[in-house]
Amino acid sequence: MQSTLLIETRVTSNGKLPVKVPFFRPHVGDEEINEVVSTLRSGWLTTGPKVKAFEREFANAVNAKYAVALNSCTAALHLAVDAIGLREGEAVLIPTMTFAATAEIILYKKAVPVLVDCDPVTGNMDLADAERKIGELKRRCLPYLRGRDLKVVGMIPVHVGGYMMNVEELKCFAKTHNLWIIEDAAHAFPSAWRANSGDRWQFCGDDTALVTCFSFYANKTITTGEGGMAVTGSKAIADKIRLMSLHGLSHDAWGRFSGAGNWDYQIVQPGYKYNLTDIAAAIGCHQLTRAEEMRKQREAVAEFYLSSFATVNEIGLPINDEDRINSWHLFPIRLKLQNLDIDRNAFIEKLKNRGVGCSVHWRPLHMHPLYRERLGWNENHFPAATQLWQEIISLPIFSSMTFEEMVHVVETVKELCAAHRANTISKAA
Predict the structure, then answer these.
(1) Is residue 392 part of a domain?
(2) What confidence score (pLDDT) does residue 1 get?
(3) Alpha carbon distance 56, 64 (integer Å)
(4) What pLDDT, on a 0 to 100 scale, did the predictor assign at position 215?
(5) Which of 220, 75, 105 is nearest to 162 (CA)?
(6) CATH of the domain at 79
(7) Sheet bearing 202-203, strands edge to edge
(8) From the CB of residue 146, how many other CB atoms can be counted at a distance below 10 Å?
(9) Strand 315-316 and strand 331-335: pairing?
(10) Residue 297 and residue 358 in one domain
């Protein structure tokens, strides 16, 4: 997608490029502050009318029937697997290239996360490897599952960085193997996919999955500080998630304490304390009105990077597909280590020393002690993710990024690549 929004250019007081560029800076202004102040003055601090409004507006934004606001994407994922009835001992396919939450919510239910390798280009779940893992599971030859009769019942794909997987292929795979889908869309708002040019855009949160879970953490594409959302086309699932989000109470808290509510309630199940506050939702409501504007600003940053790095032989760039609307939550580059005389970790340290904040998404799950030592996975089971981990760096990308900050990032990366080109005499300071 070509951006139609220009990034504002501002010159520093001394005419020099900024010394430091953060990895992320929240785009929060007076409008959000005023919304919070208005909420504080309303008397509603916890879950109330602002949350209801945020849920309604977010559901409309992603073309979903129902939305339930929660205090994190982790809470949304946890309640999603709870609502669809994941049981102890059942197996779920998840990517090894993901954050801890995608796997731990399966362990909460005493179910089994079956790790899947990533696509070497996009970083998303590799469905060919998912097929292999199902076959290995049936033959009982997965590392920590030998001798266990486990049934794969579902899958939790992750749209890494906001670049959506092929929805048709994902649905077809799930249907073939009779699996439910829960989407981990922590990076993917607003993101969309289409099969061909001219087709209808299908937004993340539309009808791909039984439940799609979003994050509004401080560094996400829209933020409520801490927060998440579960969207679904099923009223029964939405009702179950809502029930379990607040101690299993039969009535909403805000309904009990409003003039129209009922003071009485019943506890029908042991639930959790996962509700979102009106203070957080007040921020979210206004962030939502600017979501597409901010996405286009991140897209403009991405296009500047893609153009600037196009001839740099030492790095590989993320795919930019005309059949995707990418949220551009991340801009990951991939170091071509064969063309450099330093490794990824050293490159990161030099970026930081020159004032460029960065991160890595992520250390694959099979490289963490829980999954490596206790469950028996190793690097040989996931060659693509293992290699990707050694090469990737997420560069700064955020909607309030200035032109000077973008130039500083580009020039710094180029200078380091030139200084550490394989067989070069010059070395970076």
Answers:
(1) yes
(2) 41
(3) 9
(4) 98
(5) 220
(6) 3.40.640.10
(7) 202-203, 192-193, 324-325
(8) 10
(9) antiparallel
(10) yes
